[in-house]
Design goal:
single chain, 230 residues, alpha/beta, eight-stranded mixed β-sheet, 8 strands, 37% helix, globular
Amino acid sequence: MPPSPVVLILGAGPNIGQHVAQAFAAKGYKVALTSRSAKNQNSEDEVNISCDLSDPKSVVNVFDKVKELLGLPSVVVYNAGAATSNDPKDPFSLPYADFARDLNINTSSVFVAAQQAVLAFKQLPDSASKTFIYTGNKLNNAITIAPMLNLGVGKSATAHMIQSAAAAYAERGFKFYYADERTADGSPAYSSIDGEAHGKHYLQLAEGKEQEPWQQTFVKGMGYKKFPTV
């Protein structure tokens, strides 16, 4: 009997992270969850790892721990995010330390996670999912929110990274997605973000055999829906 597949969720909050974990566990995945406040409550099928994603170097340690306890992850979900608000009339009054910390969480640690995911995917059999999913939003699509300069910078940079990876690794069967929940009219979901809808959509992406559109705008109850990018 082949070993159970493994999903690693970086940033396992109570909404999206937990629902994604539940969706994959229901399909027989072993689950690795990370958060800054994770407690050492592990079992054969689930491990919880403490990790501060403001330090990109910590991501390598997470992958090493997951490999040791569960095996190589065939699905990696990056669900962490950070946003320090700035003066909308004076965006460069934001302290550089805050900008750099948030950029690490929103982008730099994503790079390291994707790098480690690719190393894992290269060792997995052809039948493995080999899927990387980043939880994004609409800020990479030519819109700005005045008090959220650093969040927009991070999401835009990471969207570019995901788009590049989706094209570069498609022939190897590695899938990369920037996921962005919207309302039916294409507006951002904002406070109506639905964790269960994320779990369902992320599992669908992981089970797909080929790379779908890298920018996965989706609507609760409908799934993927393409919207104008500008």
